[in-house]
Amino acid sequence: MDGYTVLRVIGEGSFGRVLLVQQESSNRMFAMKEIRLPKSFSGTQNSRKEAVLLAKMKHPNIVAFEESFEAEGHLYIAMEYCDGGDLMQKIKHQKGKLFPEDKILHWFAQLCLGVNHIHKKHVLHRDIKSKNIFLTQNGKVKLGDFGSARLLSNPMAFACTYVGTPYYVPPEIWENMPYNNKSDIWSLGCILYELCTLKHPFQANSWKSLILKICHGSLSPLPSHYSYELQHLIKQMFKRNPSHRPSTTTLLSRGTLARLIQKCLTPEIITEYGEQVLEETRKSKHSTPRKKADSSRIRIALEKEASTVQREEQGRKCSHPDLERINENSVASALRRINREEKVGESVHPRRASPPSAVRRQWEKGAPTAALAALEDTALLTSSSSAEEGRGVTQVNEIDFSRE
Ligand code: ADP
Ligand code: MG
């Protein structure tokens, strides 16, 4: 790692580590993700995609990419160092003391701006969780971790694989539906709920119970001092049918969030959104939370972009590296694997991927029977009672839904 001095390790994962480093030429600090490169050419190519994707993103609420290079069998990604740690740590440090609503909304608005940016670029994050959201000491929120261990663990499973953390996995995934931009919205809803309660919205002792809770959307209400608007926002994001969930554009152009983003708009965002978003947020200043916001050209344009993501996903056969869909993914077989491997206390890795089917299944009502039949009463290794994902849970919290 020529040109950088390693200061300390700030994160570790199945892929390798994240180091705090100092660039010798500038004395600037960076977070350096060190990823062990797989031996195969295709594996190496897949590993590089994390860097390629991150490099494409330029937004104040996305961790900034500095450079990437390879040395001694590793891929290094130098990125902006977020000195406030990750959101999971922050929640844990609260020790049960709830965050004030204005702080929650301020963080959440920034997160929505970041996700809006990636959706506009037709990228789905697919692993939005508190551990992948980084903070700075000056109150900025940045979405990070654009790669995933699953790309590295089995490149063959890349095209049709979804990697996620069970607590954040939306119902459509358990029900064999493709992942789309609204699936990221579900995960965003989980984050908002966690910020309000310091707990995962859906908690259970077994996979079966977790899936049922997610698919039925059974949620404990927020602490009563939070506003109706916040409760309403969460309810919208947890709509079971993905198409009924708001896009980030809709979220950002209504109510409190619209008013808030005016405050955190930087020149960069203003350029990106254009005058029309400002107009939209100005308008929403005068609207009541429950009132439907007026449609504006910018919102429609941005909504169109978001739905294009979805349409393109439906139309393509896992050919776009940024938009692989989980098409006909065999949840049942994936879960059987989880079941098997959980018993030996190992994390789950994908095996091989079959070509996806072009047919998109219709939305089906009812419980995800295949997943449930496969799971029976398999216990989660640990069920965390708080949003903390440490200890046992981390051993199984990365699920790969790949076809067998
Ligand atoms: P993984 O693929 O293992 O989830 P991440 O990119 O999420 O890897 O990094 C793992 C951990 O390292 C994060 O949860 C966070 O605590 C820390 N980390 C990663 N990138 C940064 C960064 N840019 N600034 C500060 N901490 C970071
Ligand atoms: Mg991560």
Automatic annotation (TrEMBL):
Gene3D superfamilies according to UniProt: Phosphorylase Kinase, domain 1, Transferase(Phosphotransferase) domain 1
Instruction: Name the cofactor(s).
Output: Mg(2+)
Q: Which residues bind ATP?
A: K33
Which terms are listed as keywords in the entry? Acetylation, ATP-binding, Cell cycle, Cell division, Cell projection, Cytoplasm, Kinase, Magnesium, Metal-binding, Mitosis, Nucleotide-binding, Phosphoprotein, Serine/threonine-protein kinase, Transferase
Q: Region Disordered: what ranges?
A: 340-367, 381-404
Question: Lipoprotein: present as a keyword of the record?
Answer: no
Record InterPro entries: Kinase-like_dom_sf, Prot_kinase_dom, Protein_kinase_ATP_BS, Ser-Thr/Tyr_kinase_cat_dom, Ser/Thr_kinase_AS
Give the compositionally biased regions (Basic and acidic residues).
340-349
Single Gene Ontology BP annotation: cell division
Q: Which GO terms describe its molecular function?
A: ATP binding; metal ion binding; protein serine/threonine kinase activity
Protein name (database record): Serine/threonine-protein kinase Nek3
Q: Which organism is it from?
A: Molossus molossus (Pallas' mastiff bat)
Q: What is the phylogenetic placement of the source species in the record?
A: Eukaryota, Metazoa, Chordata, Craniata, Vertebrata
